[in-house]
Amino acid sequence: EASVLKNKFRGCLLGSLIGDCTGAPFEGDTISHGDRLVIQRYYDKLEDPTFTAPYKTYTDDTAMMKSVAKFLTDKPEPDYKFLSRLFVNEFFKEPRRGYGQNVIDVFHKLRNTKYENVFKPASEQFMGAGSYGNGGAMRVAPIALYFHDNYKMMLEVASNATKLTHTNVLGVNGALLQAVAIQLAVKCDPYAKIDPERFCIELFRRMRKIERVEEDVDDMEEEDDGTREAYQNKLRVVENLLQRKHDNDLEEEVIMNLGNGISAYESVPTAIYCFLRALNEISYIQTDNVFRRTIQYAVSLGGDTDTIACMAGAIAGAYLGENCINTSLAKQCEYYKEVLEMADNLYVAKEGPGN
Ligand code: R7I
Ligand code: MG
Ligand code: MG
Ligand code: MG
Question: For a surface tag, which of 18, 20, 111, 328 has the fewest beta carbons within 10 Å of its beta carbon?
Fold first, then answer.
Protein backbone atom coordinates (compact mmCIF):
# COMPACT_ATOMS: atom_id res chain seq x y z
CA GLU A 1 0.00 0.00 0.00
CA ALA A 2 1.18 3.50 -0.93
CA SER A 3 1.01 5.12 2.51
CA VAL A 4 2.99 2.28 4.09
CA LEU A 5 5.80 2.77 1.59
CA LYS A 6 5.79 6.53 2.05
CA ASN A 7 6.01 6.00 5.79
CA LYS A 8 8.99 3.69 5.26
CA PHE A 9 10.81 6.30 3.15
CA ARG A 10 10.31 8.83 5.94
CA GLY A 11 11.23 6.35 8.67
CA CYS A 12 14.42 5.33 6.91
CA LEU A 13 15.83 8.83 6.35
CA LEU A 14 14.63 10.07 9.74
CA GLY A 15 16.13 6.97 11.38
CA SER A 16 19.42 7.72 9.69
CA LEU A 17 19.35 11.35 10.88
CA ILE A 18 18.47 10.47 14.49
CA GLY A 19 21.25 7.89 14.66
CA ASP A 20 23.75 10.43 13.34
CA CYS A 21 22.65 13.37 15.54
CA THR A 22 22.19 11.47 18.80
CA GLY A 23 25.19 9.20 18.26
CA ALA A 24 27.63 11.98 17.36
CA PRO A 25 28.35 13.19 20.94
CA PHE A 26 29.73 9.70 21.71
CA GLU A 27 31.84 9.19 18.57
CA GLY A 28 35.20 7.66 19.44
CA ASP A 29 34.22 6.84 23.02
CA THR A 30 34.79 3.58 24.82
CA ILE A 31 31.57 2.76 26.68
CA SER A 32 31.78 1.16 30.13
CA HIS A 33 28.95 -0.62 31.94
CA GLY A 34 28.34 2.57 33.93
CA ASP A 35 28.10 4.64 30.77
CA ARG A 36 25.19 2.49 29.61
CA LEU A 37 23.05 4.05 32.32
CA VAL A 38 24.13 7.53 31.20
CA ILE A 39 23.06 6.64 27.67
CA GLN A 40 19.74 5.25 28.93
CA ARG A 41 19.03 8.58 30.68
CA TYR A 42 20.19 10.53 27.64
CA TYR A 43 17.58 8.84 25.43
CA ASP A 44 14.93 9.06 28.18
CA LYS A 45 15.42 12.82 28.14
CA LEU A 46 15.41 13.07 24.36
CA GLU A 47 12.05 11.27 24.31
CA ASP A 48 10.59 13.53 26.99
CA PRO A 49 8.30 16.07 25.27
CA THR A 50 8.96 18.66 27.99
CA PHE A 51 12.74 18.46 27.59
CA THR A 52 14.25 21.52 25.90
CA ALA A 53 17.84 21.74 24.72
CA PRO A 54 19.75 22.96 21.68
CA TYR A 55 19.43 20.73 18.59
CA LYS A 56 21.63 17.70 18.36
CA THR A 57 23.61 18.64 15.27
CA TYR A 58 24.11 16.35 12.31
CA THR A 59 27.51 15.37 10.93
CA ASP A 60 29.04 14.42 7.56
CA ASP A 61 26.86 11.28 7.50
CA THR A 62 23.71 13.38 7.00
CA ALA A 63 25.45 16.14 5.03
CA MET A 64 26.41 13.57 2.38
CA MET A 65 23.06 11.80 2.49
CA LYS A 66 21.41 15.12 1.60
CA SER A 67 23.49 15.26 -1.58
CA VAL A 68 22.64 11.68 -2.50
CA ALA A 69 18.92 12.41 -2.13
CA LYS A 70 19.21 15.54 -4.27
CA PHE A 71 21.15 13.60 -6.91
CA LEU A 72 18.19 11.21 -7.19
CA THR A 73 15.37 13.74 -7.11
CA ASP A 74 16.83 16.50 -9.29
CA LYS A 75 17.90 14.50 -12.35
CA PRO A 76 16.07 11.76 -14.22
CA GLU A 77 19.27 9.77 -14.94
CA PRO A 78 22.16 9.14 -12.54
CA ASP A 79 24.69 11.95 -13.08
CA TYR A 80 27.82 11.26 -11.04
CA LYS A 81 29.48 14.52 -11.94
CA PHE A 82 26.46 16.28 -10.48
CA LEU A 83 26.69 14.16 -7.32
CA SER A 84 30.39 14.83 -6.86
CA ARG A 85 29.75 18.58 -7.20
CA LEU A 86 26.99 18.34 -4.60
CA PHE A 87 29.36 16.55 -2.19
CA VAL A 88 32.13 19.09 -2.74
CA ASN A 89 29.90 22.17 -2.51
CA GLU A 90 28.28 20.86 0.65
CA PHE A 91 31.69 20.24 2.18
CA PHE A 92 33.12 23.68 1.40
CA LYS A 93 29.92 25.33 2.62
CA GLU A 94 30.18 23.59 6.01
CA PRO A 95 33.53 21.85 6.35
CA ARG A 96 33.27 21.29 10.09
CA ARG A 97 30.88 18.41 10.11
CA GLY A 98 33.42 15.73 11.08
CA TYR A 99 34.42 14.46 7.63
CA GLY A 100 37.14 11.79 7.28
CA GLN A 101 40.57 13.17 6.33
CA ASN A 102 40.90 11.05 3.22
CA VAL A 103 37.57 12.16 1.85
CA ILE A 104 38.57 15.82 2.36
CA ASP A 105 41.63 15.20 0.17
CA VAL A 106 39.35 13.75 -2.51
CA PHE A 107 37.12 16.86 -2.39
CA HIS A 108 40.12 19.13 -2.94
CA LYS A 109 41.34 17.01 -5.83
CA LEU A 110 37.89 16.97 -7.43
CA ARG A 111 37.67 20.73 -7.25
CA ASN A 112 41.25 21.33 -8.39
CA THR A 113 40.83 19.02 -11.42
CA LYS A 114 37.53 20.74 -12.28
CA TYR A 115 35.64 17.43 -12.09
CA GLU A 116 37.39 16.22 -15.24
CA ASN A 117 37.18 12.55 -14.24
CA VAL A 118 35.10 12.32 -11.09
CA PHE A 119 36.12 8.72 -10.34
CA LYS A 120 39.87 9.32 -10.58
CA PRO A 121 40.71 11.20 -7.36
CA ALA A 122 39.16 8.53 -5.12
CA SER A 123 40.89 5.72 -7.01
CA GLU A 124 44.29 7.31 -6.33
CA GLN A 125 43.86 7.37 -2.53
CA PHE A 126 45.88 5.08 -0.28
CA MET A 127 48.43 4.51 -3.03
CA GLY A 128 45.79 3.26 -5.42
CA ALA A 129 44.05 0.91 -2.96
CA GLY A 130 41.18 3.35 -2.35
CA SER A 131 39.46 4.07 0.96
CA TYR A 132 37.66 1.34 2.86
CA GLY A 133 36.00 3.86 5.20
CA ASN A 134 32.28 3.58 5.91
CA GLY A 135 31.51 6.86 4.11
CA GLY A 136 29.85 5.10 1.17
CA ALA A 137 27.59 3.03 3.43
CA MET A 138 26.57 5.85 5.77
CA ARG A 139 24.98 7.88 2.93
CA VAL A 140 23.50 5.09 0.77
CA ALA A 141 19.95 5.05 2.23
CA PRO A 142 18.26 7.25 -0.42
CA ILE A 143 19.56 4.94 -3.17
CA ALA A 144 18.21 1.83 -1.45
CA LEU A 145 14.80 3.52 -1.13
CA TYR A 146 14.65 4.95 -4.61
CA PHE A 147 15.60 1.65 -6.24
CA HIS A 148 13.80 -0.60 -3.76
CA ASP A 149 12.02 -2.33 -6.66
CA ASN A 150 14.99 -2.44 -9.04
CA TYR A 151 17.70 -4.48 -7.39
CA LYS A 152 20.16 -4.35 -10.29
CA MET A 153 19.98 -0.57 -10.56
CA MET A 154 20.23 -0.22 -6.80
CA LEU A 155 23.53 -2.11 -6.77
CA GLU A 156 24.88 -0.26 -9.81
CA VAL A 157 24.01 3.23 -8.56
CA ALA A 158 25.11 2.48 -4.97
CA SER A 159 28.40 1.18 -6.28
CA ASN A 160 29.10 4.21 -8.49
CA ALA A 161 27.95 6.72 -5.88
CA THR A 162 30.35 5.11 -3.42
CA LYS A 163 33.25 5.08 -5.87
CA LEU A 164 33.28 8.89 -6.03
CA THR A 165 35.05 8.73 -2.65
CA HIS A 166 35.69 5.06 -1.82
CA THR A 167 37.04 2.60 -4.38
CA ASN A 168 38.41 -0.14 -2.13
CA VAL A 169 36.30 -3.29 -2.59
CA LEU A 170 35.58 -3.35 1.16
CA GLY A 171 34.31 0.22 1.05
CA VAL A 172 32.12 -0.49 -1.96
CA ASN A 173 30.75 -3.85 -0.80
CA GLY A 174 30.07 -2.39 2.65
CA ALA A 175 27.86 0.22 1.01
CA LEU A 176 26.16 -2.49 -1.04
CA LEU A 177 25.50 -4.57 2.08
CA GLN A 178 23.94 -1.56 3.80
CA ALA A 179 21.79 -0.87 0.72
CA VAL A 180 20.69 -4.51 0.53
CA ALA A 181 19.78 -4.50 4.24
CA ILE A 182 17.66 -1.36 3.83
CA GLN A 183 15.96 -2.72 0.73
CA LEU A 184 15.14 -5.95 2.54
CA ALA A 185 13.77 -3.97 5.51
CA VAL A 186 11.56 -1.94 3.15
CA LYS A 187 10.05 -5.20 1.91
CA CYS A 188 9.29 -6.44 5.43
CA ASP A 189 5.76 -6.02 6.77
CA PRO A 190 6.08 -3.53 9.65
CA TYR A 191 3.27 -5.29 11.52
CA ALA A 192 4.91 -8.73 11.30
CA LYS A 193 7.88 -9.78 13.37
CA ILE A 194 11.16 -10.30 11.55
CA ASP A 195 13.04 -13.54 12.13
CA PRO A 196 16.58 -12.21 12.73
CA GLU A 197 18.30 -15.37 11.53
CA ARG A 198 16.30 -15.57 8.32
CA PHE A 199 17.02 -11.90 7.62
CA CYS A 200 20.69 -12.58 8.14
CA ILE A 201 20.68 -15.66 5.91
CA GLU A 202 19.01 -13.65 3.15
CA LEU A 203 21.73 -11.00 3.41
CA PHE A 204 24.35 -13.73 3.25
CA ARG A 205 22.79 -15.16 0.10
CA ARG A 206 22.94 -11.76 -1.57
CA MET A 207 26.47 -10.96 -0.45
CA ARG A 208 27.63 -14.29 -1.83
CA LYS A 209 26.50 -13.14 -5.26
CA ILE A 210 27.92 -9.65 -4.83
CA GLU A 211 31.31 -10.88 -3.62
CA ARG A 212 31.42 -13.42 -6.47
CA VAL A 213 30.92 -10.71 -9.08
CA GLU A 214 33.98 -8.90 -7.70
CA GLU A 215 35.90 -12.14 -7.94
CA ASP A 216 35.08 -12.63 -11.64
CA VAL A 217 35.86 -9.04 -12.53
CA ASP A 218 39.22 -9.05 -10.76
CA ASP A 219 40.01 -12.66 -11.69
CA MET A 220 41.46 -13.18 -8.24
CA GLU A 221 40.06 -16.60 -7.25
CA GLU A 222 43.55 -17.96 -6.50
CA GLU A 223 44.98 -15.06 -4.52
CA ASP A 224 42.57 -14.62 -1.63
CA ASP A 225 43.85 -11.90 0.69
CA GLY A 226 40.88 -12.29 3.05
CA THR A 227 38.74 -9.65 1.37
CA ARG A 228 37.10 -11.97 -1.15
CA GLU A 229 34.43 -13.33 1.21
CA ALA A 230 34.87 -10.66 3.87
CA TYR A 231 31.23 -9.73 4.31
CA GLN A 232 29.98 -13.30 4.01
CA ASN A 233 32.29 -14.19 6.88
CA LYS A 234 31.11 -11.22 8.92
CA LEU A 235 27.48 -12.22 8.36
CA ARG A 236 28.27 -15.68 9.69
CA VAL A 237 29.58 -13.97 12.82
CA VAL A 238 26.38 -11.91 13.04
CA GLU A 239 24.31 -15.07 12.83
CA ASN A 240 26.35 -16.78 15.52
CA LEU A 241 26.17 -13.79 17.84
CA LEU A 242 22.40 -13.65 17.42
CA GLN A 243 22.13 -17.19 18.73
CA ARG A 244 24.27 -16.48 21.77
CA LYS A 245 23.00 -16.13 25.31
CA HIS A 246 23.04 -12.51 26.47
CA ASP A 247 25.67 -12.63 29.20
CA ASN A 248 27.99 -9.92 30.42
CA ASP A 249 30.78 -10.62 27.97
CA LEU A 250 28.61 -10.64 24.86
CA GLU A 251 29.08 -6.94 24.01
CA GLU A 252 32.84 -7.29 24.29
CA GLU A 253 32.69 -10.11 21.80
CA VAL A 254 30.48 -8.05 19.50
CA ILE A 255 33.04 -5.26 19.50
CA MET A 256 35.95 -7.66 19.14
CA ASN A 257 34.47 -9.80 16.36
CA LEU A 258 32.26 -7.37 14.44
CA GLY A 259 34.01 -4.11 15.32
CA ASN A 260 32.90 -0.55 15.98
CA GLY A 261 35.39 1.32 13.80
CA ILE A 262 35.28 3.72 10.86
CA SER A 263 36.06 1.08 8.24
CA ALA A 264 33.01 -0.27 6.42
CA TYR A 265 34.13 -3.77 7.32
CA GLU A 266 34.09 -2.99 11.04
CA SER A 267 30.81 -1.08 11.08
CA VAL A 268 28.23 -2.16 8.48
CA PRO A 269 27.82 -5.75 9.75
CA THR A 270 27.78 -4.27 13.27
CA ALA A 271 24.92 -1.93 12.34
CA ILE A 272 22.97 -4.86 10.92
CA TYR A 273 23.59 -6.83 14.09
CA CYS A 274 22.36 -3.86 16.17
CA PHE A 275 19.10 -3.82 14.25
CA LEU A 276 18.54 -7.58 14.48
CA ARG A 277 19.58 -7.81 18.11
CA ALA A 278 17.30 -4.91 19.09
CA LEU A 279 14.23 -6.65 17.66
CA ASN A 280 14.23 -8.44 21.01
CA GLU A 281 14.70 -7.07 24.50
CA ILE A 282 18.12 -6.06 25.77
CA SER A 283 18.56 -6.28 29.55
CA TYR A 284 20.16 -2.87 30.14
CA ILE A 285 17.96 -0.92 27.73
CA GLN A 286 14.58 0.13 29.10
CA THR A 287 12.18 0.87 26.25
CA ASP A 288 9.36 -0.83 24.37
CA ASN A 289 10.30 0.98 21.18
CA VAL A 290 12.33 -1.11 18.73
CA PHE A 291 13.66 1.93 16.87
CA ARG A 292 14.97 3.54 20.03
CA ARG A 293 16.40 0.25 21.26
CA THR A 294 18.29 -0.10 17.98
CA ILE A 295 20.05 3.25 18.10
CA GLN A 296 20.56 3.18 21.86
CA TYR A 297 22.19 -0.23 21.55
CA ALA A 298 24.38 0.97 18.66
CA VAL A 299 25.57 3.96 20.69
CA SER A 300 26.20 1.70 23.70
CA LEU A 301 28.83 -0.17 21.69
CA GLY A 302 30.97 2.97 21.43
CA GLY A 303 33.44 3.69 18.62
CA ASP A 304 31.95 5.13 15.44
CA THR A 305 28.64 5.75 17.20
CA ASP A 306 27.14 8.36 14.87
CA THR A 307 27.69 6.22 11.82
CA ILE A 308 26.75 2.83 13.27
CA ALA A 309 23.60 4.31 14.82
CA CYS A 310 22.88 6.12 11.55
CA MET A 311 23.10 2.90 9.52
CA ALA A 312 21.21 0.79 12.09
CA GLY A 313 18.61 3.56 12.39
CA ALA A 314 18.11 3.64 8.62
CA ILE A 315 17.41 -0.10 8.55
CA ALA A 316 15.09 0.02 11.57
CA GLY A 317 13.26 3.05 10.15
CA ALA A 318 12.85 1.35 6.78
CA TYR A 319 11.26 -1.64 8.50
CA LEU A 320 9.04 0.18 11.01
CA GLY A 321 8.20 3.46 9.27
CA GLU A 322 8.08 6.98 10.64
CA ASN A 323 5.05 6.40 12.86
CA CYS A 324 7.12 4.04 15.04
CA ILE A 325 9.68 6.76 15.76
CA ASN A 326 9.16 8.93 18.84
CA THR A 327 8.29 12.47 17.69
CA SER A 328 9.99 14.20 20.63
CA LEU A 329 13.19 12.32 19.87
CA ALA A 330 13.00 13.32 16.20
CA LYS A 331 12.42 16.96 17.08
CA GLN A 332 15.68 17.10 19.04
CA CYS A 333 17.59 16.66 15.78
CA GLU A 334 18.80 19.49 13.57
CA TYR A 335 17.24 19.31 10.11
CA TYR A 336 14.51 16.77 10.99
CA LYS A 337 11.77 18.65 9.12
CA GLU A 338 13.94 19.00 6.05
CA VAL A 339 14.82 15.30 6.16
CA LEU A 340 11.12 14.39 6.14
CA GLU A 341 10.59 16.70 3.16
CA MET A 342 13.56 15.04 1.51
CA ALA A 343 11.93 11.63 2.03
CA ASP A 344 8.65 12.88 0.57
CA ASN A 345 10.44 14.36 -2.46
CA LEU A 346 12.23 11.09 -3.00
CA TYR A 347 8.94 9.23 -2.75
CA VAL A 348 7.23 11.52 -5.25
CA ALA A 349 10.21 11.36 -7.63
CA LYS A 350 9.89 7.60 -7.47
CA GLU A 351 6.17 6.90 -7.35
CA GLY A 352 4.82 9.98 -9.14
CA PRO A 353 3.00 13.09 -7.85
CA GLY A 354 -0.37 11.33 -7.49
CA ASN A 355 0.86 9.27 -4.53
O1 R7I B 1 34.78 6.86 5.01
P2 R7I B 1 34.77 8.30 5.32
O3 R7I B 1 33.76 9.16 4.64
O4 R7I B 1 34.64 8.46 6.89
C5 R7I B 1 33.44 8.29 7.50
C6 R7I B 1 33.63 8.39 8.98
C7 R7I B 1 32.35 8.30 9.71
O8 R7I B 1 32.59 7.78 11.00
C9 R7I B 1 31.91 9.73 9.82
O10 R7I B 1 31.05 9.92 10.89
C11 R7I B 1 33.22 10.48 9.97
O12 R7I B 1 33.61 10.63 11.29
O13 R7I B 1 34.17 9.68 9.30
O14 R7I B 1 36.16 9.00 5.12
P15 R7I B 1 37.56 8.43 4.72
O16 R7I B 1 38.48 9.56 5.04
O17 R7I B 1 37.57 7.87 3.35
O18 R7I B 1 37.83 7.22 5.71
C19 R7I B 1 37.88 7.45 7.08
C20 R7I B 1 39.24 7.08 7.62
O21 R7I B 1 39.42 5.67 7.54
C22 R7I B 1 40.41 7.65 6.84
O23 R7I B 1 40.64 8.99 7.12
C24 R7I B 1 41.51 6.72 7.28
O25 R7I B 1 41.97 7.07 8.56
C26 R7I B 1 40.79 5.38 7.38
N27 R7I B 1 40.98 4.58 6.15
C28 R7I B 1 42.08 3.93 5.84
N29 R7I B 1 43.24 3.81 6.48
C30 R7I B 1 44.20 3.08 5.90
N31 R7I B 1 44.03 2.47 4.72
C32 R7I B 1 40.10 4.41 5.16
N33 R7I B 1 40.64 3.64 4.18
C34 R7I B 1 41.87 3.33 4.57
C35 R7I B 1 42.90 2.56 3.98
O36 R7I B 1 42.81 1.99 2.89
MG1 MG C 1 29.88 11.64 11.10
MG1 MG D 1 34.42 11.88 12.98
MG1 MG E 1 31.14 8.42 12.31
Answer: 328
